[in-house]
Design a protein that fits this description.
This protein is of the alpha/beta class. Helices cover 33% and strands 20% of the residues. It has a 5-stranded parallel sheet with strand order 2-1-6-5-7, sandwiched between helices. Strands 3-4 form a two-stranded antiparallel sheet. A two-stranded antiparallel sheet has the order 8-9. Helix 3 packs across helix 5. The N and C termini lie far apart (51 Å). It binds 6-chloroguanine (6GU). The site of 6-chloroguanine has 12 residues, from strand 5.
Amino acid sequence: MNSANRFDIITIFPDYLAPLKLSLIGKAEAAGIIEIGIHDLREQTSDLHGSVDDTPYGGGAGMVMSPEPWGKAIDSVIELAPDELHELIVLTPAGEKLTQEMASELTKSRHLIFACGRYEGIDIRVSDFYASEKNFKVREISIGDYVLGGGEVATLVIMEAIIRLLPGVIGNPASLDEESHTLKSTRGALVEYPSYTKPQEWRGLSVPNVLLSGNHGEIAKWRMQQALIRTKKLAD
Ligand code: 6GU
């Protein structure tokens, strides 16, 4: 059987990706739903110090990651999923912003390669080269309007958003349905309604009566109202 989605991550800090062994993603890997490879970029360097960066052409502050170690690392992970279409994800604050819709699209990809840049980013010719290769798609993705030290944490975020959507990963897939209905709704993006569990009273705070009523129509109405209120608050 060859049905697992494959994720290869290239980084100079492989230990940063240790959380992939935990929780939902760790279990999905153990169950054979996904395969994960973590690769140290420095293994692709040939000089004594394992240099992965150099000064920018045109001058300016900071360092730029050199294309050759990246080319070698990406070529080597292609061989781990030889017959698939490869999707290279370059993590950069200059990329398109991650959305739920994008995460959902990425579940269809059989082989995702995450290139975790550090410093001022990766020489753009790496993206340009693979974008022109057959069986390759390249996407530059950001997880929000702030700057991180590197793409590793962004990779964890994106992988978690994708993997929890894969069949068999979440115990009760109905919870995904409800979530996506709430998210889409009629006006684009609604956030989730608030949740309550037992006990019925906690530190003087009670669960709203409607949730105890057993009236599913009224409960759905209340939840929709609450989601709208929360969404509106965020927009203010
Ligand atoms: Cl993907 N990388 C870095 N370095 N900073 C970010 C980011 C990615 N997304 C938001 N900020």
